[in-house]
């Protein structure tokens, strides 16, 4: 059985230890109301991130495994996407099933699900398709066809009427909900093992297929803006919340690099231990001032503007199998899940309060 640990980031002292029943935590999601959702096989566990207390009984989806999670913007609804193509909505306050969004017979794994910023729509990657529903009525508003291979990422534009998707066929497509059309297709280096990231305003796309260079694209024109040389096999990319910086990292070690997209400046965050051979996960804080980097032996918080290491939160030995780190919406809480034999999820107060 796994556990949920809540610790003080500065002192390392224990605040809470909870038995959570997380036999294999596959994915995490945090809401703006301090609720953490952790998926384990077909169950979803809910926790109050401020107190560490479990919120009622686990949500039992009835599916073999939950592949994706997403909270509605107001935190009242949770969407769960399964490996069998089931997309379910859950009422968080009542902790009960609300409705199923029908995928019209598509049974592929739902690897990405997202709410529009107004909470009215839900979009999901289902096989080679992008599907959009009305979250309040469960009506299938649109099914967008055009990708030739699996869709790996979907996102809503700030206007809530355009959806952007990336596929392992090496294309990014921008879809218009109003007239069910594809507005634009961008060919990018991606493939089956590539990495892609969208800026929050969906005006930029960063992509790479392991080897340099990273390519930066303008979503509105489909033009290549430029290339960035990381110097290694890049596996992770992420934009800062204000889209002024891009973060890149290699899985097999080496520095995390920050790229200032406003003046083409580059800075490196160098792990301080030779044991930091693998970078499992990284994330920006919501205000973009901090960067969390989870490596083989430690989780560190960096100042995104200066490149200085602010604190080393924990010494640990990551199990082979992967791990991830996320920030809570207010930038205070950091969550980690480790797969493998230990199967541990941890939450720290990154400000020491």
Automatic annotation (TrEMBL):
Do the record's keywords include Repeat? yes
Q: Which UniProt keywords apply?
A: Repeat, WD repeat
Q: Where do the WD repeat units fall?
A: 59-100, 103-134, 144-185
Q: Which residues cross the membrane?
A: none
For the keyword Repeat, the answer is yes
Highest taxon above the source species: Eukaryota
What is the protein named?
Uncharacterized protein
Native organism taxonomy:
Eukaryota, Fungi, Dikarya, Ascomycota, Pezizomycotina
């Amino acid at each position: 059985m796994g556990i949920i640990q809540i610790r003080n980031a500065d002192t390392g002292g224990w605040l809470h230890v909870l038995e959570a029943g997380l036999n294999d935590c596959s994915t995490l999601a945090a809401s703006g109301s301090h609720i953490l959702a952790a998926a384990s096989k077909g169950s979803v566990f809910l926790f109050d991130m401020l107190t560490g207390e479990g919120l009622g009984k686990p949500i039992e989806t009835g599916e073999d495994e939950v592949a994706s999670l997403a909270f509605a913007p107001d935190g009242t609804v949770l969407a769960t996407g399964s490996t069998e193509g089931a997309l379910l909505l859950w009422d968080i306050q009542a902790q009960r099933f609300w409705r199923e969004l029908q995928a019209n017979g598509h049974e592929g794994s739902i690897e990405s699900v997202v709410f529009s910023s107004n909470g009215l729509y839900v979009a999901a990657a289902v096989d080679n398709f992008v599907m959009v529903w009305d979250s309040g009525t469960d009506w299938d508003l649109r099914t967008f066809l055009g990708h030739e291979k699996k869709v790996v990422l979907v996102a809503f534009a700030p206007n809530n009427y355009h959806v952007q998707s990336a596929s392992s066929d090496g294309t990014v497509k921008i879809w218009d909900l109003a007239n069910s059309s594809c507005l634009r297709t961008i060919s990018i280096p991606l493939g089956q093992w590539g990495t892609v990231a969208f800026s929050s305003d969906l005006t930029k796309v960063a992509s790479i297929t392991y080897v340099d260079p990273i390519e930066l694209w303008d979503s509105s024109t489909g033009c290549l803006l430029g290339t960035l040389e990381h110097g290694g096999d890049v596996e992770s990319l992420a934009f800062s919340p204000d889209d002024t910086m891009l973060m890149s990292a290699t899985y097999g070690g080496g520095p995390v690099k920050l790229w200032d997209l406003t003046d083409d400046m580059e800075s490196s965050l160098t792990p301080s231990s030779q044991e930091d051979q693998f970078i499992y996960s990284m994330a920006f804080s919501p205000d973009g001032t901090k960067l969390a980097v989870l490596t083989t032996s430690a989780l560190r918080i960096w100042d995104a503007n200066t490149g200085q290491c602010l604190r080393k939160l924990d010494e640990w030995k990551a199990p082979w199998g992967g791990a991830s780190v996320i920030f809570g919406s207010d930038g205070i809480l950091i969550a980690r899940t480790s797969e493998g034999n230990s199967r541990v999820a941890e939450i720290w107060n990154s400000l020491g309060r």
